[in-house]
Automatic annotation (TrEMBL):
Keywords noted in UniProt: Signal
Family: Belongs to the bacterial solute-binding protein 2 family.
Protein name in UniProt: Substrate-binding domain-containing protein
Domain of life: Bacteria
The organism of origin for this protein: Actinoplanes subglobosus
Entry annotated with the keyword Signal: yes
CDD domains named among the record's database cross-references: PBP1_galactofuranose_YtfQ-like (cd06309)
Pfam families per the UniProt record, alphabetical: Peripla_BP_4
Signal peptide region: 1-25
């Protein structure tokens, strides 16, 4: 488990002004202790994740929040240990992006008993007791999966015959894998010709995507479409498809999620066909929520990030200014 060696910018601050996309600094207040935020990050599995971590680090610095960032290498037990440490350290606020959805109740109850508010970011937890966290900041993964499916329905509207789809899923048990799968399935139900013939966990990594795709290509003589749950998996799939002598984006259509710079570049080159945005730049909004929680202001129970989707032309248009 990586622990960031720095406690970021211990500038005195009690109130935060950052809102939405801005990264404005918090006002300094003489004599007022800065907020201590413990953040448990999933890992370093994807370009999205690295951009998310950087966004949180920068926003903490700008807001004068002391950030104790711990990176869990994709292991729930590492996150559990990190959060217990935050509780022992009596941080002011805990935030975390859970590796998987289930198995958090006991730990969150410990934080609640210690009087430490918890903000869930990026990935939702599966709990019936919503008093265990104060808010959830992140994307609507079901909508992302639905957008992927809707594009496919539209793309094959005039096509007759079975469309064979393989799905490279994100980490088993994680919210984005569960919700993107179900949103996608719901959307493609509109056309019974669209058939998912295989799906497997690619763990949100490029290597995972390549391995899973290589296996699919061996097992299935005809594949028309790949739905990869993130760009990294899709980029790995491109390598496997090319190694198999086929043309990604032409012989097989590929849809991914994230819209990272590498993903949009592949889309602009015609090696991906459609990319759904999942915005990792959550740092400023997180710091605003942290400030409000700390000062007892009311906050919404759910903050959904605004997102779009890209075809080839849209990718070319945004690429010069893409931040991640
Ligand atoms: O939870 C967000 C997902 O996790 C992103 O789509 C993926 O790239 C990341 O690893």
């Amino acid at each position: 488990m990586r622990r960031t060696p720095i406690i970021l910018a211990a500038v005195a601050a009690g109130l935060l002004t950052a809102c939405g996309g801005g990264e404005s600094a918090a006002p300094e207040k003489a004599g007022q202790a800065s907020i201590r935020l413990g953040f448990s990050q999933v890992g370093e599995e994807s370009a999205w994740r690295l951009a998310n971590t950087t966004s949180i680090e920068h926003a903490a610095t700008n807001a004068g929040v002391q950030l104790d960032l711990r990176v869990a290498d994709g292991k729930q037990e590492n996150q559990t240990a990190a959060i217990r440490q935050f509780i022992n350290d009596k941080v002011d606020v805990i935030a975390f992006s859970p590796v998987v959805e289930s198995g958090w109740d006991e730990l969150l109850q410990e934080a609640k008993d210690a009087g430490i508010p918890v903000i869930v970011t990026d990935r939702m937890v599966d709990t019936t007791d919503t008093s265990l966290f104060v808010t959830m900041l992140g994307s609507d993964f079901t909508a992302e999966g639905r957008k992927a499916g809707e594009w496919l329905v539209e793309h094959y509207r005039d096509y007759n015959g079975t469309v064979r789809i393989v799905e490279i899923e994100g980490t088993t048990g994680s919210a984005p894998a569960n919700q993107r799968r179900s949103g996608f399935a719901e959307a493609i139900e509109a056309d019974p010709d669209l058939q998912v013939i295989a799906s497997r966990d690619g763990n949100f990594t490029r290597e995972g995507g390549e391995q899973v795709m290589a296996g699919f290509l061996k097992e299935h003589p005809k594949i028309d479409v790949v739905f990869a749950h993130n760009d990294d998996e899709g980029l790995g799939a491109i390598e496997a498809i090319e190694a198999d002598g086929k043309r990604p984006g032409v012989d097989l259509k590929i849809i991914t999620v994230d819209a990272s710079r590498d993903g949009l570049t592949a889309l602009a080159e015609g090696r991906l066909n459609y990319v759904i945005e999942c915005n990792p730049l959550l740092g400023p909004q997180l710091m605003e929520l942290v400030g409000k929680v700390r000062t007892g202001q009311s906050i919404p129970r759910r903050v959904v990030v605004d997102e779009t989707a890209f075809d080839r032309e849209a990718a070319k248009a945004v690429l010069p200014n893409r931040q991640y």
